[in-house]
Design a protein that fits this description.
CATH topology: Serine Threonine Protein Phosphatase 5, Tetratricopeptide repeat
Low-confidence stretches: none
Radius of gyration: 16 Å
CATH architecture: Alpha Horseshoe
Oligomer: single chain
Order of helices and strands: HHHHHHHHH
Mean pLDDT: 97
CATH class: Mainly Alpha
Structural class: mainly alpha
Number of domains: 1
Largest sheet: none
Bound molecules: adenosine-5'-diphosphate, magnesium ion
Number of helices: 9
CATH superfamily: DhaL domain
Strand content: under 5%
Helix content: over 70%
Distance between the termini: 10 Å
Length: 208
Amino acid sequence: MDTDLARAWVQAIAVAVGRHRDHLTQLDSAIGDADHGTNLDRGFTAAATGVADLSADTVGAVLTTTGTILVSTIGGASGPLYGGAFRALGKVLDTPVAEPLAFAEALAAGLADIQKLGTAVPGDKTMIDAYAPAVAAFEERARQGADFATAATAAADAAEEGMRSTTPLQARKGRASYLGARSVGHQDPGATSTALIFRSLADTAASA
Ligand code: ADP
Ligand code: MG
């Protein structure tokens, strides 16, 4: 990943989130407060604008700026979680070009940041259920020597599988956990947006 790909990724997320805004909000209306789509649309639209004319020498500069904008614009539980994750990625990627293994390390730092702040573990029916398998898949492919787009596609596939795996789970973190057993049978909104974030990465890398 170079700075152009980092910028294109953020812009692709903004497009994907905009396109899926109503779906994300619908999912959040079933087990939350119906703001996930609008929250993320606001945040990633602001981030896409913010990085568009940012003069950045490193991938980290693009992703750190993205994280800072997300923290200040998304709100809710997901704002600090996604914002912190992008900032954690940015901190690791203090380089003009990140090879797949370095990017895998950054994704792992993002995961650690989400878990430190939100204390969720896999199976709690959160964004972690999509994010954690995506990180593992990206890292596995990177270790095998795969190129960036191949690793990102494996990560997106794993994120989508993780997203679908949240439906039968009972939420143990966040607003959905207040519903107890009534949260079962609904796909988690945050896991769904995480899958969009990884699919955007795969699509952007494949067309770079
Ligand atoms: P809010 O719940 O404050 O309205 P959003 O609707 O924007 O925030 O985001 C909800 C999503 O945030 C959930 O679907 C879940 O994936 C994620 N989430 C909530 N709490 C946590 C947590 N403690 N750790 C990880 N993810 C969480
Ligand atoms: Mg919500």
